[in-house]
Specification:
CATH class of the largest domain in chain C: Alpha Beta
Shape of chain C: globular
Largest sheet of chain C: 6 strands, mixed
CATH topology of the largest domain in chain C: Rossmann fold
Distance between the termini of chain C: 40 Å
Strand order of the largest sheet of chain C: 6-7-8-3-9-10
Number of domains of chain B: 1
Chains: A mainly alpha (about 350), B mainly alpha (about 290), C alpha/beta (about 250)
CATH superfamily of the largest domain in chain C: P-loop containing nucleotide triphosphate hydrolases
Strand content of chain B: under 5%
Oligomer: heterotrimer
Helix content of chain C: 25-40%
Number of helices of chain C: 9
Number of domains of chain C: 2
CATH architecture of chain B: Orthogonal Bundle
Largest sheet of chain B: 2 strands, antiparallel
Chain lengths: ~350, ~290, ~250
């Protein structure tokens, strides 16, 4: 029964740490009243979520897309157009937005799945850029000037608030929910299929994985998350224009994942939490004198990480003594064998119970 | 009819720049199998270099051309040595991709910090001169650019085909391990290749200053078109890049003339997607 | 023991742009046995193998599995038909641990695991069987060739195949490691798995196979028990390199 006790302690400690972290985030708006700081956190939440959306395709499946911003744009446009023209409820439209982006990714983009490596990256850029050009040239989408959402009093049903605090909480929930989804994918069948494809497509086919099928799944999930973030963004900014869909934005969404560690589900979160506040701080304080200074910092951090820590901040943490310290002293994590034994014990007892 | 002829001539002249950019991208992609996502930014750096040489040292843009090419070559070599070669070892294409993306961010935002976001331009005594060729009139700088392009294409083709270093470059692009075994210093070839590719972007940038505004994101459109040129023209083929560049320029001008100027970008991108997919289908059919 | 072959290949031919890599090769694999395919480098073994496994579509010819035509099946459909393969050039999932490598396999194929626990249980069982259990938490890229070869087999076994194709599973191993690998293959066979293997190492083929097919220049030149094949004059010639003119005469004949 030692196994059970040790694992129980570990799980309890883990729950306490995660709970404390979430609580800490929840309490931020209670103590911090400046809209500026709250805005930075909202940025952290939705950019990290976008980065997770990229990561399932780039980090997990090894397909480096550089056109995710276009899907976010499509999501935002769907919300703005349907809400203003048809008067639907924005929450309902968020589901529609996900369906639209998912369909575009799964059906129109489908022929592009035969492309591999750098060619996939190129086609993702070209595809995103064609969508943006289409919108710029379309009267329906408001051409280059974009589409807005109606203003008015605070209303949860309309997801419309003067204060930034409600967006903070919705953004936080969105980020945690997407993280939970990604973590589940990572641990189950789809995740193993995607990682196998990343390592070797022929090896994947040899064990019975249809590479195209799983790549479609990854792209559709990624696009749907981006579509939902588009809904969040549109409701927050209350406006969308084609500038949201430029390639530079797509790049911006990838950076947290690469800096944080693209091989890990947590990578985009870690990268986002470190990079975005830093970038916003630089923008706010130096942008007038030195425009672009925040992006320079971004670029330098990116180059340094790739040059010296190719597996990102988390990759470095995983090998560090710091992790050992946290695992052993704070979480009291038992050795892997014990965890495995516990998992099997549970499985056996459940099988027996059936 | 004159409008059509004018559009054809403009298309060819514009295509010349795509060809120049494409050749640089082509040898980098061909030798190291990495996509240089900061190629457009390198063109922009070439533009600012020419601008500085003209404004502060009074050097005529065309006289500055060799100097710009040389400086860009060394810039490329330094980047290759300090950043790309070490990262090539990890064999992670994701990392190499974002390395060049990061470099692009650094360069375009660096230009923003140094020069601001306003448009700059170089006006020389001859930049407005036009030369009539039959019913079409061509700006002198564009004509000169095109001549430079032809000289560069022939020089590059001859260099890769007949010189020892050129042969070494081609050997490395075929098989780096095999080349290393044969006693070729692969790292040195990488250095040369990247330097050469960047120098070509620099030449394009220098020539472009005569009729294009200089601003931090001036190279973005050219950078992506260089990639189109590589894919369409074929890996490692200098004549292929030349003709693909011209074709691309023509496609843009024709779609602007016959459909609408605002749709020409979209048509270029969609054509590119179709070409990529069809090309891959043909490769798969052969297997 | 049924008389009907589990795998039957009829008139298999592959041409690459005029070059005929494999020409009219026919053979069958008996259920429950170990069949070997040998031949010098460039004989077309791997091409044949890749065609049988669905990686290359054959130019001509048919492949039957338990009497069913599987010629046009795609590579990823094979594990659903209880057929698994390994690769000559190992393809471990480099950045995953050995355990995760095998778990990934256990999730797919005809007996796909329904849950993570089921996949893990099967993976552990197979790792114990193949002798990799102690190294299960090592990243697969950090292992040596012999272990990676074992991992190839473990990954294939995790899909619970009835037929296993092994592509040069002993290439690059020293004699001790080869002996271990032979032992493992025999053990797999005894658990009821039909095996078709490509091998360079004669010792392995002789001690394992009940039937051997010899390919040369893309054509089948001999078939039979190891003893029969070893004593075939043409096979000896191909392997031991008799005088050139003799060979030419033979080809002309």
């Amino acid at each position: 029964m030692d196994v059970k006790k040790a694992v129980g302690t570990y799980h309890r400690n883990l729950a306490i740490v995660i709970g404390a972290l979430i609580l800490l985030f929840c309490l931020i708006p209670v103590f911090v009243k400046t809209p500026y700081i709250i805005n930075i956190f909202v940025l952290v939440f939705y950019i990290s979520t976008m980065s997770m959306a990229w990561n399932i395709l780039g980090g997990m499946t090894g397909q480096n897309s550089l056109g995710l911003a276009a899907y976010m744009g499509i999501g935002a446009y769907t919300v703005c157009l349907v809400v203003t023209k048809l008067g639907w409820n924005p929450w309902a439209v968020s589901i529609l937005a996900m369906l639209v982006t998912g369909l575009i990714a799964g059906v129109i983009f489908f022929p592009c799945f035969i492309l591999q490596g750098p060619y996939f990256t190129l086609v993702s850029i070209a595809f995103a850029e064609s969508m943006r050009q289409f919108i710029i040239n379309s009267e329906f989408f408001g051409r280059a000037s974009g589409v807005g959402l109606p203003f008015g009093g605070d209303s949860f049903a309309q997801f419309r608030f003067a204060s930034k605090v409600p967006y903070f909480y919705v953004g936080l929930i969105m980020m945690i929910a997407v993280y939970a989804i990604m973590k589940t994918i990572d641990r189950t069948k789809i995740g193993f299929a995607l990682k196998t494809i990343r390592e070797d497509e022929d090896a994947a086919a040899a064990i019975g994985i249809n590479p195209t099928k799983y790549k479609v799944i990854a792209v559709v999930i990624s696009a749907m998350v981006a579509g939902f973030v588009g809904f969040f963004y549109a409701s927050y900014i209350r406006y969308v224009d084609p500038d949201l869909m430029v390639q530079a934005k797509s790049t911006e969404f990838v950076l947290p994942a690469v800096v944080g560690g693209a091989a890990y589900v947590e990578g985009p979160l870690v990268g986002g939490l470190i990079m975005i506040p830093l970038s916003e701080f630089l923008r706010a304080n130096f942008a007038r004198v030195l425009p672009g200074i925040n992006m320079i910092m971004y670029a330098i951090v990116l180059l340094v990480v790739i040059r010296f820590r190719p597996s990102g901040i988390l990759g470095w943490y995983m090998d560090s003594d710091f992790k050992k310290f946290i695992d052993e002293k704070i979480l009291k994590k038992p050795p892997l064998d014990v965890l495995e034994e516990y998992q099997m014990m549970n499985y056996e007892s459940r099988k027996g119970g059936k | 009819m004159d409008v059509l002829l004018q559009a054809i001539v403009n298309g060819i002249l514009l295509g010349g720049f795509y060809a120049l950019m494409g050749m640089g991208q082509n040898i980098i992609f061909g030798v190291m199998k990495i996509v240089n996502f900061c190629h457009g930014e390198m063109l922009m750096v070439g533009m600012y270099l020419t601008y500085m040489l003209y404004t502060y040292a009074g050097i005529d843009p065309y006289l500055a051309l060799p100097l710009v090419a040389l400086i860009m070559f060394f810039l490329g070599a330094v980047i290759q040595h300090t950043l790309i070669t070490p990262s090539l070892k990890t064999k992670s294409f994701t990392n190499l991709l974002f390395l060049t993306v990061g470099l692009g961010l650094l360069l375009s935002n660096g230009a923003l910090v140094l020069f601001g976001s306003d448009y700059k331009s170089i006006r020389t005594s001859y930049s407005q001169t036009t030369i009539p060729i039959g019913p079409v009139s061509v700006a002198l700088p564009r004509l000169i650019s095109f001549c430079v392009l032809i000289v560069v294409t022939i020089a590059l083709f001859t260099f890769l085909k007949y010189s020892t270093v050129g042969k070494q470059i081609r050997a490395v692009s075929q098989n780096p391990v095999g080349a290393e075994v044969c006693g070729i210093n692969v790292k040195r070839i990488y250095l040369l290749t990247y330097g050469l590719g960047i120098a070509l972007a620099g030449i394009a940038g220098c020539l472009l200053t005569q009729f294009y505004s200089i601003f931090p994101t001036a190279g973005a459109g050219f950078g992506f078109r260089a990639l189109i040129v590589v894919v369409v023209g074929g890996l490692g083929s200098i004549p292929g890049a030349f003709f693909a560049g011209i074709l691309l320029g023509l496609l843009e001008q024709m779609s602007a003339l016959f459909i609408s100027p605002s749709y020409s970008d979209m048509i270029v991108f969609i054509t590119f997607i179709v070409i990529l997919v069809v090309r891959q289908l043909i490769i798969m059919r052969r297997k | 023991m049924s008389e009907k072959p589990v795998i039957e290949v009829v008139g298999l031919t592959k041409r690459f742009k005029g070059l005929t890599a494999v020409n009219d090769v026919s053979f069958s694999v008996r259920k429950g046995g170990i069949t070997g395919m040998i031949g010098p480098n460039g004989a077309g073994k791997s091409t044949t193998f890749n065609m049988i496994c669905g990686y290359y579509p054959p130019t001509e010819g048919k492949i039957y599995y338990n009497g069913e035509d599987i010629t046009n099946k795609r590579a990823y459909e094979y594990t659903n038909m209880k057929i698994a393969r390994t690769f000559q050039i190992m393809k471990p999932l480099k950045n995953l641990t050995v355990l995760d490598n095998v778990i990934a396999s256990a999730y797919f194929g005809h007996a796909a695991a329904k849950s993570k626990e089921e996949a893990t249980e099967r993976a552990i069982e197979i790792l114990k069987f193949t002798g990799l259990y102690e190294k299960r938490h090592v990243l697969s890229k950090e292992m040596g060739t012999p272990d990676q070869k074992r991992l190839e087999m473990a990954r294939a076994l995790a899909t619970k195949p009835e037929v296993l194709f092994l592509d040069e599973n002993m290439a690059g191993l020293n004699p001790t490691e080869t002996a271990e690998a032979i032992e493992l293959i025999r053990k797999i066979n005894q658990s009821g798995v039909t095996i078709l293997l490509i091998e360079h190492i004669m010792q392995a083929v002789v001690s394992l196979c009940e039937k051997v097919i010899v390919l040369h220049h893309g054509e089948k030149i001999a078939e039979g028990t190891p003893e029969e094949v070893m004593n075939d004059p043409y096979v000896m010639e191909v392997y031991l390199g008799k005088k050139a003119e003799d060979k030419q005469e033979k080809e002309e004949a």
